[in-house]
Amino acid sequence: MNSNPALCAAISDRIANNPQKRITFAEYMDMVLYHPEHGYYASKAVNIGFKGGDFFTSVSLGADFGELLAEQFVQMWEILGQPRTYSLVEMGAGQGLLALHILNYYQRHYPDFLPALDYVIVEKSPELQQEQQQRLQNYPVRWCNLVDIPSNSITGCFFSNELVDAFSVHQFILQTGELREIYVTLPSDVEQNENYLLLEGEFQEIIGETSTPQLTKYFELIGIDLTAKVYPDGYRSEINLAALDWLSIVADRLQRGYVVTVDYGYPAHRYYNPRRSQGTLQCYYQHRYHNNPYINLGRQDITAHVDFTALELWGEQCGLTKIGFTQQGLFLMALGLGDSIASLSHQDIAIAQLLQRRESLHKLIDPTGLGGFGVLIQSKGLQNLEISQPLKGLIVPK
Prior knowledge:
By secondary structure, the protein is of the alpha/beta class. The protein has helices at 5-17, 25-34, 64-79, 97-109, 126-135, 214-222, 241-253, 268-271, 308-317, 328-334, 337-343, 351-365, 384-388, and strands at residues 23-24, 86-91, 117-122, 141-143, 154-161, 170-175, 178-185, 196-197, 204-208, 236-239, 254-263, 265-266, 282-285, 288-290, 301-303, 306-307, 321-327, 374-380. β6 and β7 (178-185) form a beta hairpin. The model has no long low-confidence stretch (mean pLDDT 91).
């Protein structure tokens, strides 16, 4: 087990200091990923890219993804009547490459738009924020916490790419038709308790009552009945309450404009399909994935797929209107990726470079990979005429 000993000690202390000698899986996952000193995203362990990385994203394939997003953001600015200040709030900016690609593109193609642009990055990881600041030092970018943005102060667009999948999730299991929660404890605390799941390692899982009534209310929100006979005993999955909290804050801060969420996930009926009996939790370590979140602590990523139905319906309760939902491949093709692919044959570049670029562009639209990601666009404060203007990325290519 290649875990960070200091992180394991911190988690053990948290469990030992809990009156019930256990913590929710959500609390455990939050520490593993976001502990201020030893968490995966707070350390130098984060490695994005092809060579030796834990995972790669649309952004690490080149500038095309960011440039096409930039086109969509400009159209949104135009629909909003070209406000004097237009904020682009990127939440979870990784290494800062997406911001770099977008801002470079605007400098080359939309210099008249730049005076109106207020580019804001919301980044939880101090390590990543430092890398972003170094990469973007020549650009007018500002950093802030999401909670520090005043209510109803943003005209523009909040957007994220592969952010929500990294939020900490509660894990549950069905026992005789009842929703029960999975907690994390120490091996020494399960000896006299038969209601635990067998694991080998420093931590153990134990089953208990739900930690909050919000878990039950979640399924009322998305219209899923876990008591139905189609769900087998022992059915296990995740609930992302943190995503709802996040969207509540985003909706409160947005006065007029859009929310764009790009991530991998499913609508609720597919997410909680009875046949998906072990949920969607995945761990990524050096380009390999597995489903054991109790190894490589602080040195591997842990994610869960996004329930887009929950984001859509909770967004409605927060005052957001769904503009559209599509797949990333269709979204990028509608914004012009097909033209980029077609133009490759006319470019005077080495054959090896051409093939590599073609492969990268095709990865962006591969329906079995990045192209199958969901793109959810919501709005707030738009007039009927503004809502009726179709966004380029949502126009189905002919």
